[in-house]
Design goal:
Elements: H1 19-24, E1 35-37, E2 48-53, E3 58-63, E4 66-68, H2 70-81, E5 86-88, E6 94-96, E7 98-101, E8 106-110, H3 114-124
Antiparallel strand pairs: 1-4, 2-3, 3-8, 5-6, 7-8
Length: 126
């Protein structure tokens, strides 16, 4: 699966130093997106965490330290991962693959998606 930045912008990769974007001829600047993902300190890592819940039967990936338009981030990440809007479970309830926790301002992705989310964040420029 090929992950792409959410919005192609005509900026040469010389300013960002991204060799893959140089081949494509475009990259995305996080300053031009309606949301921001802040890296951790002091290690400057992306705030992407994988958790097992329910005795290890439920796997989730959490994206933390977010600000700005979380709905736009949810849609861009959903498009990048190739996920549908949602599904209906066995009891007939509608569930989302990527949900927003408005209290903690975090995105919760169903499944072990940490590597894909980290790669997408790096391609986007965060």
């Amino acid at each position: 699966m090929e992950l792409r930045p959410p919005v192609p912008i005509d900026i040469t990769s010389a300013s960002t130093g991204n060799a893959a974007a140089a081949e494509a001829g475009q990259t995305t600047s996080p300053n031009q997106l309606p949301y921001l993902i802040t890296r951790t300190s002091p290690g400057a890592q992306l705030p992407v965490y994988e958790h097992a819940k329910g005795g290890g039967t439920k796997h989730i990936t959490v994206l933390r330290k977010l600000s700005g338009d979380l709905e736009a981030l949810q849609q861009h990440l959903r498009d990048a991962l190739g996920l549908a809007d949602g599904f209906v479970d066995a009891k007939g309830r509608r569930k989302e693959y990527i949900s927003i926790n408005w209290t903690t301002r975090q995105l919760v992705v169903r499944g072990w998606r940490g590597a894909e989310v980290r790669r997408w964040c790096e391609l986007t420029g965060f």
